[in-house]
Write a structure and sequence with these properties.
Order of helices and strands: HHHHHEEHHHHHHHHHHHHH
Largest sheet: 2 strands, antiparallel
Number of strands: 2
Distance between the termini: 18 Å
Number of domains: 1
Radius of gyration: 20 Å
Strand content: under 5%
Length: 385
């Protein structure tokens, strides 16, 4: 297959993933479960199929993922093979998340495909903005203050979706060349921000702010590359936050009893209470985890979830793979691609939607870096890698 056909296939897969992402989102928001299920199932087939094709095309195997998959199989074997497809869904999504990260530094997308992708995301965002302002889309959550949930299980997951749409639309500032489209993409992002704030999702707000500040700093200060230690620090941020929280929790727990927002039940110590289970099961989970026990548990931290489900060896391998992927994305494409992955990694400090969730949100791990590629190079010979 020649270079032109490679490029056309890459673009087609990208646009198909965008349709799956939007289908999963709208299927949930408007409670059309059949659409949500179909879009999600197609996304799994697309990611795994396209990743397998890329490995065959390049005539090489991604060593990092081979190690991760080997450790994953061991964890599942020791965790007990029971249940149907739903039982293995978290493990399947974890593999798809890592495959999306691998594709993020391996696949070049044409500018036209990026523009079509962003136009679709912008159109979807406009629908949600209009629907929100005219119909409210607010629900009472756990008997407390009204929070935007968009029919997702909780406002944190809704916040992660809105955060992803904001980061994609902001990326239009680089992809679109005309001033009108640059303004339009920026305006859509600005109107999405109040919707994000209404979810009161600390995790999504912090990660989105990190991306926006980084994006503007790179453009204003003309930063060409981020140091590797900074990429490593952000990659390990879920572990750093977890360790700091637990240290404070055991040394002086009263320090975390700070109310966040206007909900008295939402304090800084709420996550520490969940994470204390990690410490209680540390010895039992260390080598191969306990998938049967934690597969359906939301540990509100990507590293904590990976550790509890699969053990320390797999967590270490996955963390190194994530770090290496961000470095490769910056080296081959641009600092913006690395920033995109780092923002996703940072969001794992308090939520697990990208790596251990059960929705199509993991597609952002490929779509966002793909959108933030160099933008000025054609599909080249893959042998350079």
């Amino acid at each position: 297959m020649d270079v032109k056909k490679h490029s056309m296939l890459n673009d087609a897969v990208l646009l198909a993933m965008v349709l799956c992402l939007i289908g999963s989102f709208f299927g949930t928001v408007f409670e059309v479960t059949r659409v949500t299920s179909l879009a999600f199932s197609l996304s799994l087939v697309l990611v795994l199929g396209f990743f397998a094709y890329r490995c065959f095309l390049n005539n090489r195997i991604n060593l990092y993922l081979v190690i991760v998959l080997f450790l994953l199989v061991l964890s599942l074997l020791f965790g007990g093979l029971s249940g149907g497809l739903d039982y293995f869904k978290p493990a399947i999504i974890f593999v798809c998340s890592l495959a999306c990260i691998a594709l993020a530094y391996d696949v070049e997308i044409s500018e036209n495909a990026k523009k079509l992708m962003l136009l679709a995301v912008m159109a979807a965002s406009v629908v949600i903005i209009v629907y929100f302002h005219f119909f409210g889309l607010k629900e009472e959550f756990y008997g407390s203050t009204d929070l935007v949930v968009l029919n997702f299980p909780n406002p944190n997951e809704a916040g992660m979706w809105i955060m992803s749409f904001i980061m994609l639309t902001v990326s239009g500032m680089r992809v679109f060349s005309g001033i009108v489209m640059k303004i339009a993409s920026t305006a859509v992002a600005v109107f999405l921000i109040p919707l994000l704030m209404a979810t009161k999702s600390r995790n999504a707000i912090i990660a989105c702010a990190f991306f926006l500040v980084g994006f503007l700093a790179i453009r204003i200060l003309k930063i060409r590359s981020a140091p590797k230690w900074a990429i490593l620090a952000v990659t390990l941020s879920p572990f750093i936050v977890f360790s700091a929280y637990m240290l404070i929790h055991y040394v002086n727990p009263d320090t975390l009893d700070v109310v966040v927002g206007d909900d008295p039940s939402k304090t800084m110590s709420s996550r520490a209470g969940v994470w204390s289970r990690v410490m209680k099961n540390f010895g039992d989970s260390f080598l191969v985890g306990d998938y049967g026990e934690f597969a359906d548990q939301n540990m509100h931290n990507s590293f904590a979830s990976i550790f509890c489900q699969y053990g320390m060896p797999l967590l270490a391998a996955a963390a190194w793979f994530m770090y290496d992927a961000a470095c490769r994305a910056q080296r081959r494409f641009s600092i913006y691609a690395a920033l995109s992955l780092c923002a996703a990694y940072l969001s794992g400090c308090f939520e697990t939607s990208f790596f251990c969730g059960i929705s199509g949100l993991y597609l952002i791990l490929f779509l966002l870096p793909a959108c933030n590629g160099k933008g000025d190079r054609k599909e080249a010979a893959y042998a350079e890698q």
